[in-house]
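Ligand: zinc ion. Inputs:
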Amino acid sequence: MVTAIKKEIFLKDYTPPAYLVDRIDLRVELDPQATRVRATLSCRANGQTGQPLVLNGKRLELVRVEVDETELTSDRYSFADDLLIILGLPGRPFTVTVETVINPAGNTALEGLYLSSGNYCTQCEAEGFRAITCFPDRPDVMSVFTTTVVGDKTACPVLLANGNLVDSGDLGDGRHYATWHDPFPKPCYLFALVAGNLVHIRDSFTTRSSRIVDLRIYVEERNQDKCGHAMRALQKAMRWDEERFGREYDLDTFMIVAVDDFNMGAMENKGLNVFNSKYVLALPETATDVDYEGIEGVIAHEYFHNWTGNRITCRDWFQLSLKEGLTVFRDQEFTADMISRPVKRIQDANIIRSFQFREDAGPMAHPVRPPSFVEINNFYTLTVYNKGAEVIRMLYTLLGPQTFRRGMDIYFERHDGQAVTCDDFVAAMEAAWGRELDQFKRWYSQAGTPELTVEATYDPAARHLVLEVAQNCPPTREAAEKEPFYMPLAVGLLDETGRSLPIGGAVDSATRTLILSERSQRFVLDEIPTKPTVSFLRNFSAPVKVVFAQSDEELSRLMAHDTDPFNRWDAGQQLGLRYLLAQIDRFQNGDAIELDQRLVHGLRNLLADDDSDPAFLAMALLLPTENWIGQQMTTIDPVAVFSVRQQFRALIGRALCAELQTRYHRLSSDAPYRYTAADAGRRALRNGCLAYLLAPDLSGLLDPELLALGVQQYRTGDNMTDRLAALTYVVNADLDTGTELLTDFHAQWRHDPLVVDKWLILHAGCTLPGTLDRVRGLTVHPSFTHKNPNKVRSLIATFCATNHSQFHAADGAGYVFLADQVILLDTLNPQIAARMLAPLTQWRRYDADRQVLIREQLTRIGGLPSLSNDVREVVEKSLA
Ligand code: TRP
Ligand code: ZN
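Predicted complex:
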């Protein structure tokens, strides 16, 4: 069955639904190839009566349509182009019953009802419910769902759906059933059904109003021992949302199901979250600290959606950031409280600068609230999620914690049970603040990254510091000319000795929040006794680029003394960036690369620093990412960026060999692995030291004793964090030793899919020559399959989106490989195929030869006769 070609749809064309569906009763009789779905919709006109009823339906076989329990003859309805249109409806409320047959076993798109490891599960966001039954598949139609799941007793002992279990029983023919009722009206994208042979672990949570909630995590039996961390994370998230936002859980049970085949991280279906097993399962020997942190964050994110997404949902998909930006903000705050606020802020700012800025500068750039789209699945992006969270964070900074919290309370009070817009959210904040936010709302409608140009002039006679700030935002698809943005600029000042100068800030006297609202603005700070060093954009108070000519001395002072940990870290990054860019110039001219001694000096100080949080030091030790370096260049030279950065790492490893080894050994411990923020921070710093020690120089040379240190850590480590770190450094330092250890690793873990993913990532991320050939070989390895998104991301996305020097090899072989993979994936899973395309969308950033090679591949894909809407939209926008 072919899916209809979609047109671009526009926010400005929004119209309310012609009919509402107050209730839906579903009966799903499970069968791998022919699942029968009977849906009865209780409909009423939303305004004018007598209109045709238009229901969405795709990839399903329509068996029967009834209105008020009478079967319709074919002249009363049509079913074409993914729409079921019913005519001649009564002027009063009526029921429509639709019977469809679907094929879960043949569903490789992982949207709608599908099988994962033999178990049934669903994914309906954004528009997957229409692949289960015919329904007005739009989030402003909210219904009370009652779901009866019927399944084979041996194949499907467990039958789950949203809400509370209200009935169950034996059907006498080898099948049984369970009926679930969800009392909260919800859009159909939050529907979920799970059935199969699963076990569960149980615990409970007592809400602050003393209700006991039954918590369950369902997994395949082999994973039963890996759920403890996820369960504790859930309990922490539930407590945190009560304490921080006053939000209590509302049903008697909360269920999580982990599946191996999943397009994204997880899904917040009401009372029945479905998770990619990557974000549930963890044991010290199989999961790293990063995995543990990711699990805690994603569990919290999906749980927080219960209020921001489910109780209050989106009017239409243009408003996606209403729930996603806000929920990411909430999960960031949660993780900040669980680990370390500064470290979390650095991680999040890094994501924005390394990845979201790049998206904003590419052909798929869109505002936080896109004005149009072809395929909504292409808009689950860093812009909607992470920039959306930055927009919420700016409101938090502008209003202050108490007023922001009051705004949240107003939002929940006003809109509980509704499907609303980003404007409604901002209106609640305006009500709390008592001021309008019209100009601020441009963050929702204008794409692109504003660039601030800053000049500071000190007048000793007047004791004035004048800050001149100009903003400029490059043109993007939706607008050539940008109106100025409204944003908070958190600023502090340091004197020559690094002490902070009071400047009368509201929260602390050392930080002042200036409001930038004009294209160009002058801020005068009074009573400044000496020429200060400016700590600009503290805590990354707005998602912007900054051009500010500060001297190396000023940056070094900030790096050593700034009380704002984000800027302390960022000053080091800026210095590193400066030295790297200077050497990239030399490299491109064929000159030898030299390491600036000031960088060595700064890093030596970090290695000797016993006062700062090790997790912070681990981040400060890192050189700017290849992505961030590339973004500073007019034309990205991926080989030069990688080579210079690699050579820097090697030179640092040699220059600071003694200091690195000392700190490495001082951080060693015999205590058994525990995932705590403190232990994880120590491991991160220790492995950061090891990374430098094992960094080979450009001729591939490395002291065998250092290599042996890595091999030893791999062999003796008692946890995946330390073993995987060591393995990564060995794999990237020495091909023979790396290959030997990879074989050992695969032999040990080939039965654990999540660890096999790590093995694929190690292969695909290897920066030594020949990686593309090895990656190509792995696409036909028994441990790999194109049908599993985690495998595809591990092998193909790691190579194409992160291994820049290998993927962008001058012969263009990487581009041909990716195009081949996208073409194959598009026949299986269009959402994943479209995501894999991302590296090719950036073609304008490279030199003329690479541009030609990349465009050739985009054109080849675009010329195929049958392409998904997902891939077609990305290709067409990239070439436009
Ligand atoms: N709402 C989910 C989340 O943020 C995202 C999601 C999960 C999703 N699965 C999806 C989006 C499939 C599109 C398609 O957490
Ligand atoms: Zn989400």
